[in-house]
Specification:
alpha/beta; Aspartate Aminotransferase, domain 1; Aspartate Aminotransferase, domain 2; 2 domains; 7-stranded mixed β-sheet; binds 4'-deoxy-4'-aminopyridoxal-5'-phosphate; Aminotrans_3_PPA_site; Glutamate-1-semialdehyde 2,1-aminomutase; porphyrin biosynthesis
């Protein structure tokens, strides 16, 4: 078997940066990435034979842990009948029924193949529906690598220092208004000046691509009110938070209903899937019913649908959300207590199975606060954790994920390592 070092050397000759998605290259934390040979439950086994407790969980989808037996069985059953048909298949109807049942805003839904496709299509639909061009996004929110959304973007774009990507025409970016998250005056002023030009607000309701940021009281309610009163479409990007912060996502958790919702990650059970859905009146503007074109050769793929249906059904049956709250709080409290004892400024925003680590004096409310945090402390902690068998996301601007396969021993071991890592800073 080839080691990670050998594989990465070869990969760099063949693949730009040696990776198929930039954050995987470990550029900001330093060092070379490991290659994963296999994964089971909450653990990764690297090509070098190391076993790691995983808090990345394939960037969110593995809410039941890796290689879940029920999801594997569902894929195996679907595989008996073929891999792709290019016609409607029964799984798509079951998936749509589940999504309409679970996600409060979704009356109709269209499947696609990634979170990027979901947000791109939701934006096009909002523009087609309103006949307007401008959209509002928030600094530090990441909605996939859609041209008009790679403006002050989070995630890998921010990690690698290019939140405004090259290759995006200024005329495209000009249609995107970027505001600070948690700044009510900014969004009020924007609507007062050009409310009749704004097709949509797209927002990660709990931004999780700039570290994890929580909304101030009343902020998301304000976005809802402004969209309603100005005839703009409110799009929640719940690619990350959907089925994770509650079965029905943030919208269920806080009781605010957007007009459209972008979904991804968990609904594919680890296979490539996205979806967008919302009010039937808006969704019916999509082709073949309406003038907004959107399509996909592999959209509604039977294997991906079977995996996603199994993942969602298991969440419905098991209701892991109270346990996530307990596990998340256990990790948060241990890390905060250690930082306090050491006199180190640390914030650990945490909601259920998601938590972030900001080495900052005050709670992080926006992009500016996040990018002012001591990222070198995070990098030190990342390296310490990896050397001691715990895999955190390889960037201070990402969010850690807990899955149902993290058992008490995993959490205790990981806390022990992270506590020692904080002491080592
Ligand atoms: N929206 C959000 C909130 C995301 O976190 C991501 C990916 N991390 C995307 C959209 C894009 O999804 P994908 O990588 O599947 O294209």
């Amino acid at each position: 078997m080839k080691s990670s070092e050998q594989l990465f050397k070869r990969a760099q000759e063949l693949i730009p940066g040696g990776v198929n998605s930039p954050v995987r290259a470990f550029r900001s934390v330093g060092g070379a990435p490991f290659f994963t040979q296999s994964a089971k439950g909450a653990h990764l086994t690297t090509a070098d034979g190391a076993e790691l407790i995983d808090f990345v969980c394939t960037w969110g989808p593995a809410i039941h842990g890796h290689n879940d037996p029920d999801i594997r069985a569902a894929i195996a059953t679907a595989l008996e009948n073929g891999t792709s048909f290019g016609t409607p298949n029964p799984y798509e109807v079951t998936m749509a029924e589940l999504l309409v049942d679970i996600v409060p805003s979704v009356e109709k839904v269209r499947m696609c193949n990634s979170g990027t496709e979901a947000t791109m299509s939701a934006i096009r639909l909002a523009r087609g529906y309103t006949g307007r061009s401008k959209i509002i996004k928030f600094a530090g929110c990441y909605h996939g690598h859609v041209d008009s959304l790679l403006v002050k973007a989070g995630s890998g774009a921010l990690t690698l220092g290019n939140p405004d990507s090259a290759g995006i025409p200024a005329s495209f970016a000009a249609e995107t208004i970027v505001l600070d998250y948690n700044d009510p005056e900014a969004v009020q002023a924007c609507f007062a000046q050009q409310g009749d030009e704004i097709a949509a607000i797209i927002v990660e309701p709990y931004p999780a691509n700039c570290g994890l940021i929580l909304p101030d009281d009343g902020y998301l309610e304000l976005l809802r009110e402004l969209c309603t009163s100005n005839g703009s479409v409110l799009i929640f990007d719940e690619v990350m938070t959907g089925f994770r912060l509650a079965l029905g996502g943030v919208q269920e958790r806080i009781g605010i209903t957007p007009d459209l919702t972008a979904l991804g990650k968990i609904i594919g059970g680890g296979l490539p899937v996205g979806a967008f859905g919302g009010k039937a009146e808006i969704m019916d503007h999509l082709a073949p019913l309406g003038p907004v074109y959107q399509a996909g050769t592999l959209s509604g793929n039977p294997l991906a649908m079977a995996a996603g249906i199994a993942a969602l059904q298991k969440l419905k049956d098991s209701n892991p959300y109270p346990l996530f709250e307990t596990m998340g709080a256990q990790i948060r409290e241990a890390l905060l207590a250690t930082a306090k004892e050491k006199g180190l400024a640390l914030q650990v925003p945490q909601v259920g199975s998601m938590f972030g680590l900001f080495f900052s004096e005050a709670p992080v409310r926006n992009y500016q606060d996040a990018t002012s945090s001591q990222t070198q402390h995070f990098n030190t902690l990342f390296k310490y954790a990896l050397d001691h068998g715990v895999y955190l996301p390889p960037s201070a601007y990402e969010t850690c994920f807990i899955c149902t396969a993290h058992n008490g021993t995993d959490v205790e071991q990981a806390v022990e390592v992270l506590v020692a890592g904080i002491r080592s800073i």
